Amino acid sequence: MTEQHATRHRGRGRRPAAEVRADVLAAAGRLLLHEGLPAVTFDRVAREAGSSKVTLYKWWPSPGTLAAEAYFAQSAPVLRFPDTGDIRADLVAQLTAFVRWLTREGAATPVSELVGAAQTDPDVARAWAEEYARPRRELARDRLHAAQQRGQLREDADLEVIVDQLWGACYHRLLVLKVPFDETLVPRLVDQALYGAARAR
Amino acid sequence: MTEQHATRHRGRGRRPAAEVRADVLAAAGRLLLHEGLPAVTFDRVAREAGSSKVTLYKWWPSPGTLAAEAYFAQSAPVLRFPDTGDIRADLVAQLTAFVRWLTREGAATPVSELVGAAQTDPDVARAWAEEYARPRRELARDRLHAAQQRGQLREDADLEVIVDQLWGACYHRLLVLKVPFDETLVPRLVDQALYGAARAR
């Protein structure tokens, strides 16, 4: 976003709120992904989006919650969850996109910073959990439930545990162990969640 | 720790370094578990342990790294990993102790705060990952490897993936989803990791 662009916006008078909001989220998302969470200040976002800081204060309780919402907007198209009817293929596809997004498309740092902030900032915690992590879990659970109905998963399988064991495994490496990983992990992860680690009984 | 206690220490002259270190870690661990990470300042720990702030600055680069080491010292006796030869029983016992430690013995907040701090503080990240999370993974992997040798786990099972899918699942609920959970989760978690979620092929 350039000064010229911001000036052009100002010259046009009052823009529709939805348009301003989209511009603000896009600017915050760019800052978040390229420079990390500390770069997402109301000052910089307002400047880059050609909006006023007063507007930002009205819409978000803190820069951290704006950053969280910007992350959801940026990640949504990347993290689509395919629905082909083959649960193994759909899980591998979705988790591969997630791991690439983290490790190759720059999301590892902002995700770590957002989850990190969520541990001590209740507003960020609420935005992250309620608007991202739990809705994503719901989506995964819907797909797993459909697979269970089709007979691909055991009737007594705990679908939330499957979610924990797939996405939780990636977060474990990213946040807790802090070891590098890449998408070659994904097929092993999915197969082990589906078929187990024990010798056949 | 009382003023009286601190005074008694000072009156005894120079104490052995190992004794001072143990007192400092114990004081930091108490503050961490009862009041959380922000309570672990060099000021308060020095006062509670009857030691000098200079000593603390010499031994730890920051209060966060002192808190991390204090956490390891506090958690070590709680998180012993039994070795009975029955991998399912040992995993259930260890994970049950871990989940109780988080949810009933007050460790959820300090663990969240430490992992949160590790996302932006490289010293805490290093202390957490290198001195706690990865050595704990090694210990789990040793147990899993022994079970594999005994024929309880498949020869092609990825042991690190099992670790991610067990402990990572707990951290996922604690840090990412921020949903309550308790030790009734553990047997389902272990059985699903061992026997899989898919219908038998």
Automatic annotation (TrEMBL), chains A, B:
Signal peptide: none annotated. The keyword Transcription regulation applies. Residues 18-78 form the HTH tetR-type domain. The keyword Transferase does not apply. Residues 41-60 bind DNA. Keywords: DNA-binding, Transcription, Transcription regulation. InterPro entries: Homeodomain-like_sf (IPR009057), HTH-type_TetR-like_transc_reg (IPR050109), HTH_TetR (IPR001647), Tet_transcr_reg_TetR-rel_C_sf (IPR036271), TetR_C (IPR011075). This is AcrR family transcriptional regulator. It holds the Pfam family TetR_N. It comes from the Bacteria. GO terms for molecular function: DNA-binding transcription factor activity; transcription cis-regulatory region binding.
